[in-house]
Predict the 3D structure of the following.
Amino acid sequence: MKTTYTRGAWLVDTQHNKVGRVMDAKLPGVYYLRPPGGGKEWSVPRNGVRAATADEAQRANAKEHPPKGPVFVGNQYGGIERVRP
């Protein structure tokens, strides 16, 4: 059974090992993907993609929606540090 992906799904272009969001799938046999954070779309044959893993999708989503305020992370000494978004 063929898997079809809808607009907005994160896929991996297996030929180029690039993650992209499905922008269109109107042409038979082709997906149009856009890189995280925007940019130029590219086309990929339907047999040249796979669903992004949860980790890949989370990283791609983070690039699309960066934090708006300051970010604090734990450091190696047990304290916290402010990191620029």
